[in-house]
Amino acid sequence: MMENVSQDDIADTVNRYKGLGGFFRRFKGGLLSKIASGDESDLARFGFATDQRATLAFMQADLNVFDNKETKKDGAVATTCFLHSLDVPPSPFFASSLLSLTVAHLGDTRALLCRTKDGAFHRLTTNHHPDSHTEAERLRRVGTGIVTDSFGESRLGGGLANSRGVGDRHFKKFGVTAEPEITKRILKGPEWSFLVIVSDGVSAFMSDQEIVDLCRGAADPSKAAKAIVAFAETVGSDDNITAMVVPLPGWGKTGGTDTSKDRRKFRVQQNSGNPRQRRQ
Predict the structure, then answer these.
(1) pTM beyond 0.85
(2) Which pLDDT band holds residue 280 (cuts at 50, 70, 90)?
(3) Which of 74, 204, 199, 78 is nearest to 151 (CA)?
(4) Which of 8, 16, 176, 181 could form a disulfide with 171 if both were Cys (CB 3.0 to 4.6 A apart)?
């Protein structure tokens, strides 16, 4: 969808969001606000930037869900990462000395970087839960829509765990938005081993360091991702379990030690009766 969006669609998309009412009555478009209001100076200077294009694509996907009778009640979260080489001439992203990374994120999926020199993780995303600092501030004018369930977790509109996502039309008036949180970084390629993206069925059952440590020594990124999924199943996750590992120039050169190895071994022993483990 990123390839198909056009700046010509911005005004209509923003107006349709305003039409959702509630939280969005005063919506101006976020990153798209200058273009939506007719101020296209940045567009003329820099073109239609990746973060703006991603924002429009997410919002249009949201509206497409509403227009489809079969999906209009559905909802989803997402994390997308865009890498491109800044080398001259350009190199493949997995071999570039300098990289641009843009992350567009909704909900509680997660993106992590692993540092080459010591194997430490760097988290690129935050969970968009109603009580998180960022979201609580954004939603403060509709705070009455936030309740706490029997597990002590905040729910928006009485039932939704994530305050950003595609779909969930009935919760839009409370502020559920498909406008992604954008993170941009310039990376020195060799300083980073890999990028890993996981669903909440992984991150809710594994620490960030466990996730990156499981990729150490993997023969290829596909096997690293499978190791993450297998471990999440072993320790009891029964939610959506998805992992993607993207090699960066430091792939296969991760230093430091596997600091979570003993903890992972203990957790496997503690979950030895898990039916999912027996099926492996």
Answers:
(1) yes
(2) very low
(3) 204
(4) 176
